[in-house]
Specification:
Elements: H1 8-11, H2 17-31, E1 32-33, E2 42-43, H3 45-70, H4 74-78, E3 81-87, E4 98-99, E5 104-110, E6 117-119, H5 121-132, E7 135-151, E8 154-167, E9 172-186, E10 191-207, E11 240-244, E12 253-257
Parallel strand pairs: 3-10
Antiparallel strand pairs: 1-2, 3-6, 4-5, 5-10, 7-8, 8-9, 9-10, 11-12
């Protein structure tokens, strides 16, 4: 029994499009066999399918890890790692920020890779708990697989991740990092777990004041959706806006896209 509990109806939704792009464009080079000049390259389609499926499975596990971190559930987050796991040390104290822009400061949590340590689930949960306790609230968190290599029931890849919330001083802060990771397929649980998590960079930007205010609701454009990855918002959708004087009345008009009906 592992310490992570989740609703498979949420985490096992089909999220194929970006993962297929990842599998085909990042990993296709590995599956192209050398061919004589003038002949089409032979593509091992079976291997590409396997890489795609396993990359998608790892991406789903990272989405579930994101949900656990967003919920500040350190014990559940630890369950997405093997026991034991080799990881970089997570900060337990906030580094002093330095000026970046007028109202923005930058915090360098880790400037270079640190040695890996071997931790149990309990030790890993305690370390994640100490790091997450540096934030009074967390609005969003995301772990993404940026590139991967598939080797049987194990694999390696590069990850990026971020966390957005308010720190202990109530200031909005966005933590962003990268990591080299190794994954292992767990037969009893039938899913992938993180075996190594080597953080290569970890910084954050924080604002000394709230620079933006909510204007969508007063304008009648507000839309309430479940958090990404949860039931009701499990697909990939692009959000955006464009401004222009659509009706030539001298005032700028705003066109907004979303999973809901578009608004003008």
């Amino acid at each position: 029994m592992t310490p992570n509990h989740r609703d498979d109806s949420v985490t096992r939704k089909t999220r194929t499009t970006p993962v297929r792009l990842l599998a085909w464009f990042v990993l296709a080079a590995e599956a192209v066999a050398p061919a004589p000049q003038g002949n089409p390259a032979a593509v091992d389609r079976a291997r590409l399918e396997t890489v795609e499926e396993r990359s998608e499975a790892i991406a789903n596990e990272l989405l579930a890890l994101s949900e656990a971190v967003r919920a500040t559930d350190a014990a559940r987050a630890a369950g997405y790692f093997t026991e034991p796991a080799r990881t970089s040390r997570l900060p337990s104290q906030a580094a002093a920020p330095r000026p970046k822009l007028k109202w923005i400061r930058e915090r360098v949590w880790q400037a270079q890779p640190l040695p890996l340590r071997t931790l149990s689930w309990a030790e890993l949960a305690a370390e994640w708990g100490s790091f997450l306790a540096l934030f009074s609230s967390i609005e969003d968190a995301r772990f993404k697989l940026k590139a991967s290599e598939e080797i049987g029931s194990a694999g390696r890849g590069k990850m990026s991740f971020y966390l957005v919330g308010r720190n202990s001083d109530g200031l909005r802060e966005r933590v962003r990092g990268t990591a080299d990771a190794a994954f292992t397929y767990s037969d009893p649980d039938r899913n992938w777990k993180v075996r190594e998590f080597a953080i290569t960079s970890l910084t954050s930007l924080l604002s000394s004041r709230d620079l933006f205010s909510e204007v969508a609701e007063p304008a009648g454009l507000a839309a309430t959706l479940p958090r990404y990855g949860e039931s009701g918002n499990s697909g990939f959708a692009w959000h955006g806006a464009a401004a222009g004087d659509f009706d030539a009345d001298g005032f700028m008009d705003l066109f907004v896209t979303s999973p809901l009906p578009y608004r003008l």
